[in-house]
Amino acid sequence: MKEKTLILEPGRADKEYWRDLWRYRELFFVLAWRDISARYKQTVVGVLWAVLQPVLTMIVMTLVFSKLAGLPSEGAAPYAIMVYAAMLPWQFFANSLSASGNSLVGNARLISKIYFPRLVIPTASVITAFIDFLIAFVILLALMGIYNFWPSWRLLTLPVFTCIAFLAAIGPGLLLASLNVKYRDFRYVIPFIVQFGLYISPVGFSTSIVREKLGEALFMIYALNPMVGVIDGFRWAILGAEATVYWPGLAISLAAISLFLWLGITRFRRTEKTFADVI
Amino acid sequence: MSDTIIRAEGLGKAYRISHEVAPSHDRFSEMITDRARRLFGASKNTDPTVEKFWALRGVSFDIREGEVVGIIGRNGAGKSTLLKILSRITEPTEGRAEIRGRVASLLEVGTGFHPELTGRENIFLNGAILGMSRTEIRRKFDDIVSFADVEKFLDTPVKRYSSGMHARLAFAVASFVEPEILIVDEVLAVGDAEFQKRCLGRMSDIADSGRTVIFVSHNLNTVSQLCTNGILIQNGQIVAKDNINNCIKAYISSGERPGGGDVYEPHAVHLQTKSRIVFAEVSSKEELSRNHFPIGASITFKIKVRVGRGEGSLRLGIAITSRDGLRITTLFSNNDENTLGYFAQGDELAFTCGIGGASLAAGQYYIKLSLDEVTQKMPIDVIENALSFSVSTPSIEPFPKIQGAGLLHFQQNWRVTKIK
């Protein structure tokens, strides 16, 4: 019945950290479930909100970039669907980033009173964003029906790109979360990143336009924005043969995602033990 | 069976404290300017505003399996820090501890309760947070509900619960966690007397079941009832480890309490982010000796409070209890509108309350202090037995001390006339 001895020492690298994380998986689900049910209880329009936000943004962007600016779509795909295919991962990214970035401060009492691997909190907080993503995805299917636009087999690869979008959000999310514990003014940084990111990411227009205008070399710098690769991937999967992916760009984005992920996890792990002291 | 289940060797925990009015390093921008300042001359180590404070140092002890240990000491002596280290919430700065077995810690009742969720949902949520598996919670669900006495309100969001119901449900969930080692901090400081009695019963059941329990409370009565052994901590160090009654004796004879004075170890108060009662004193112009007043004396309480983060509107409660635990009255600071206002973090407030009019009968009286944020329901700080004082008939009176006079003393005008 007795478990093995636990040793508490300063600076002791928890060799069993990841196993511990697995042992606390039930807490992960409970926290995720708490966030979801609390959210949909508080706001009557919870589901509606998850739908309205991307749809309205999509309509505005389609009007501005297609009708006013006269930009071309990817191949023959309807402009609205092209924009929506980018809105999906963008909303998921933005919501995940703000949820995970603010999650530790939002659970301050829990952190100062109970032990568990702290990584549980920011990762569980992303689940709400994922549910919103699923709801928004249903709208995509409806949109495809309206435009009579049929997806190809590539749609089946969407989970892979969703995973990449998750990783793209959780890396900076962990970084911001741990900084937020110590320096509270980072909570003002998060909405800024989200707002600014929407302008510089290829949500309202296609990446091929950007590549044309910037040239290959500059585009590689543009692709350092992790969302460039993710959005390209989403369009490739959703728009089927109409979309093309610029693979070197995707590779750069993936590299940037990995870098942020590494930065986020190491910073988080390094500061995790002091959360209870400074929060 | 006397297996050592917890062994601590030279445990220490240091915090960095800054001596400025507001904690400075909370802002990233300030960190940048700080770094810049250092870059241009000011060296790192001579920063006079930051100092290392050892909340706990050189703490070593063994706890055997099945032992029920009470940890006592003044606020800020390091009790909570020790519990936080043992429950893995924070890491020690030096030393090491070995723990054999699963630990569950109840450092607060109702941690993680979500106001929007129903009672039923919160049982599962809180249970999982305290380390219970879902099947375990399901098995104990009915027991938890009947102990908390909330059957009718299971599907009501807990934000509609009264604070008593809230506390009952929270304690019920927590008390059904069954680890090998249970660490409990001050959970009995909530709820009404009836419920506290039930909690106490539940706690002694747990203690009797052979589990190892580490218990911290300001209520020395509770500690002596529940625990067999004690650890007395002062200024971050263990000064006694003995059976509980000896520890309590040592504690009472060591400090000014329950006579009054600093309630907090003066240094440690800087570490607190919440508002804290830091000083308490009772006095009277007519006092016979320290904390000893004649009947009818007007008594003055002086309580100092340090304001914490985001707690601008505070109410202080002073409860006077008789020796047998009967609440005589509670004085609230907002009964007088002048004492209510908005304050910033780091402010120190002095509450002074003079009482007169009615007078207490001869006897021993105990003071419980509580501090509420006016907008919140739960108290921020509670100190049981913060002070005590005695009231007696002045020795100059022609009659010997009157026993069994009750609780109140009235001015009396007797006249005896012969009518027949």
Automatic annotation (TrEMBL), chain A:
Biological processes annotated in GO: lipopolysaccharide transport
Q: Return the InterPro entries for the record.
A: ABC2_TM, ABC2_TM_bact-type
**GO MF entries:** ABC-type transporter activity
Q: What main location does UniProt list? A: membrane
Q: Do you know which Pfam families this protein is assigned to?
A: ABC2_membrane
Q: Where does the UniProt annotation locate this protein?
A: Cell inner membrane
From the UniProt annotation, give the residues forming the signal peptide: none
Q: Which PROSITE patterns match?
A: ABC_TM2
**TM annotation in the entry:** 43-65, 77-99, 119-143, 155-176, 217-239, 245-265
Q: Which UniProt key words apply to this protein? A: Cell inner membrane, Cell membrane, Membrane, Transmembrane, Transmembrane helix, Transport
What membrane topology is annotated for this entry? Multi-pass membrane protein
Which parts of the sequence belong to the ABC transmembrane type-2 domain? 45-271
Q: Does the keyword Ribosomal protein apply?
A: no
Q: What Gene Ontology cellular component terms go with this record?
A: plasma membrane
Family affiliation = Belongs to the ABC-2 integral membrane protein family.
- What's the protein name? Transport permease protein
What organism, scientifically named, is this protein from?
Thermohalobaculum xanthum
Automatic annotation (TrEMBL), chain B:
Swiss-Prot/TrEMBL keywords = ATP-binding, Nucleotide-binding, Transport
Domain ABC transporter, which positions? Answer: 37-260
- A molecular function GO annotation: ABC-type transporter activity
Alphabetical GO CC annotations of the entry are:
membrane
The protein's matches in InterPro entries, at most eight in alphabetical order, are given as: AAA+_ATPase, ABC_transporter-like_ATP-bd, ABC_transpr_TagH-like, Bact_Polysacc_Export_ATP-bd, P-loop_NTPase, Wzt_C
- The superkingdom of the source organism is Bacteria
PANTHER family membership: TEICHOIC ACIDS EXPORT ATP-BINDING PROTEIN TAGH
Family, as annotated:
Belongs to the ABC transporter superfamily.
- The protein depicted here goes by the name ABC transporter ATP-binding protein
Q: Please spell out the taxonomic lineage of the organism that makes this protein.
A: Bacteria, Pseudomonadati, Pseudomonadota, Alphaproteobacteria, Rhodobacterales
